[in-house]
């Protein structure tokens, strides 16, 4: 009888669906999103905004459709553990929020007031965060390989481009800020990429040999790593300021320096600072990667008659490649973010819009400068993570 009771209890526990803890967090975020303002109306670009909840910001039918999708995502997050359902509802919630924001812009923009500004409010952003968590959780549960993650990133990028190109967001103030600065935006985007990718390339060219040298000469390793650690601890603005004086002196006293762009302010100190910040991850990961190569493999290569140079190029560096690529990933993501601060010393980049927006109390201008670096850093992390995983499998 006791055994029967225990068996029945076990059956009851098995039959009772377990609540997903992350799903509960997502559900709470969805409830908060529905309670907060969905859109903000401002009579002018810098006027104080009025927050409007979902059913005030949209026509009743559209608002009901968006709310229904969010509620469905909430229920799925809590009650369903099937990753395909979670992925589908998370993606549908993101689409509903994006289209709802565009519809709010069209619905709220007065026909007789070209200065009015409509922007997504906190409820929209919390909802996007909740839906993105649901999608990310589903992708983790699906255990997508590197190729699958790259395909997902490409599909996401294509959908975002299609959304922007469709004109669905044409009434939102973020797009209005972009339209007013389209030429400048793409010029600063190029500057941002030059700063981030160019300093990375310089760090690879200098950092890899330094890492190999530190690996081979143990007496050099600790002093070099310590110096690079000290540089890494200097705040970015302080380092930019420190570099102004020496670069200004070089520009004034070295023939041809000014002509090639070396100045006390502008891209030169920003580029040099990003390069200096990049050295520690490059050198340290190179040393760690080479140290991680099996001594048995190195001894076998030595026994085959390979010289030190041949062992390094043909055996040690290929086996250390995943760790070295991890250093490159760290540097690129770090530099994409730090390049934003370069605008404060005339270095350009997306930070130009961010700091202009802060000075003008223009939220949408701040977003115009902040969102692209976030998207670039995320995309860079996904791509390089996939490359690292593929290279690691290739060496396994």
UniProtKB/TrEMBL annotation:
Q: Which organism is it from?
A: Pleomorphomonas carboxyditropha
- Annotated signal sequence is none
The record's subcellular location field reads: Cell membrane
Q: Which residues form the ABC transmembrane type-1 domain?
A: 189-389
| Any one of the GO BP annotations | glycine betaine transport
Cell wall biogenesis/degradation is among the record's keywords: no
- What is the designated name of this protein? ABC transporter permease
Its taxonomic placement starts with: Bacteria, Pseudomonadati, Pseudomonadota, Alphaproteobacteria, Hyphomicrobiales
Q: Which domain of life is it from?
A: Bacteria
Instruction: Say which family it is in.
Output: Belongs to the binding-protein-dependent transport system permease family.
Q: Please give the Pfam families that the UniProt record associates with this protein.
A: BPD_transp_1
Print the keywords alphabetically.
Answer: Membrane, Transmembrane, Transmembrane helix, Transport
One GO cellular component term noted in the UniProt record for this chain: plasma membrane
**Per the record's keyword annotation, is Transport included, yes or no?**
yes
Q: Which PANTHER family match?
A: GLYCINE BETAINE UPTAKE SYSTEM PERMEASE PROTEIN YEHY, GLYCINE BETAINE/L-PROLINE TRANSPORT SYSTEM PERMEASE PROTEIN PROW
Q: Which residues form a coiled coil?
A: none
The UniProt entry lists membrane topology as: Multi-pass membrane protein
- Transmembrane segments in this chain: where? 21-40, 60-80, 87-109, 115-135, 147-169, 189-215, 227-251, 271-298, 319-345, 365-388
